[in-house]
Amino acid sequence: MNIEDRIARRRRTGDRHRLVLDEDALSPVWHPPEPVDRGALVERLLDHLDAVFDGERPPNGYLRGPGGTGKSAVTAALVDRLSEALPPPGEALFTTTRGGSASGVSFVRVDLREADSAFEFAHAVLDGLVSDAVPRSGVGTDEIHGRLERRVRGGGPVVVVADAVGEPVTVDAATVADRLEAVDGPFAWLAIGRPAPDDVAVPEGTPVIDVEPYSRATLTDLLAARADAGLGQGALSHSAIRRIAEWADGDAGVALSALLGAVEVAGEDGAVDDDAVDAGMAAVPWPCVPAGRVLALPANRVRTLACLVALDPDERAPVGDCAARIAGRLDLTASTVERFLYELAEAGIVERVRVDDHEGPGRPPSRVDPRFATLAFRALFNRRFATPAV
């Protein structure tokens, strides 16, 4: 945050005594236009994409690193800036240092959590290249492929940034490559994920760009910048920010989830004190499923999870009774909710935990525990669905 931003923040009329000034700045699923202290990664990505400055297709690549290391944030910001800086397809590119001319390059970001099928993937790529709405009904994958081929024919390269490869419900890098090869066009891809290259079938010879976790000092700076932008003056002490950063062990997503949870506990007119920070951290399990992955689920699953986190722990067992309690709050049957819970357990979103203090005959029942940051999820859910979690 620069000096002008800091001054403008303090001058906001009527905001000086509010706890939350900017909800986006506190969200673990929002990416700032200028990621904190990731200049070295930006340079490495620019080196990898260097060919686009001559209007040529860059090599494919795999950006790999642990969760919460800024992979998505950096690529989102970089793609947006490159799209603004480079001419659109069909226009000549002239530079004084590189000379010559070339067609423009297009960039498309695809979230594989939402574009899980071949149709959805091709639809997302086409939708990122055209201004008109792309139909979903009455068309098949072949029709979308045809429209996509016509769109890119004779134009410059198209770089597809495919985020979240190799998660339990997303495809691997080889599938991304196959889906683009099924379309006749000048495509290059940059896959983003956590697993090792071999675990997501990255084709042999593909350049791999590794990302290291944030250092404690850098994560502290990141949290301080988010808190400065999102909270009222003096709402959170720097010692509390340092404590969250140390606890999060280099994972910005975990740290921001704890921060948002602490703010949720504090309330609109409160202060984020030590008790609120403790509650925010306690609401983040280890390991923690990213909030973006949870919110990318179908709406009925997300609402099911919102009802789950609203239950007391002893109301989440056994699974059948838990499902019945949730169904009573939604327009769904208990059997449908129970199926959702088993599917979510298979995907690692929730976990079935045996109740050890069970008394009586038979096998001990299972309790359904969330594997995501519950307080942060509740805040994000209430904002996205514009209705409180029941």
Automatic annotation (TrEMBL):
Pfam families assigned: AAA_16
Domain Orc1-like AAA ATPase positions: 36-165
Protein name: AAA family ATPase
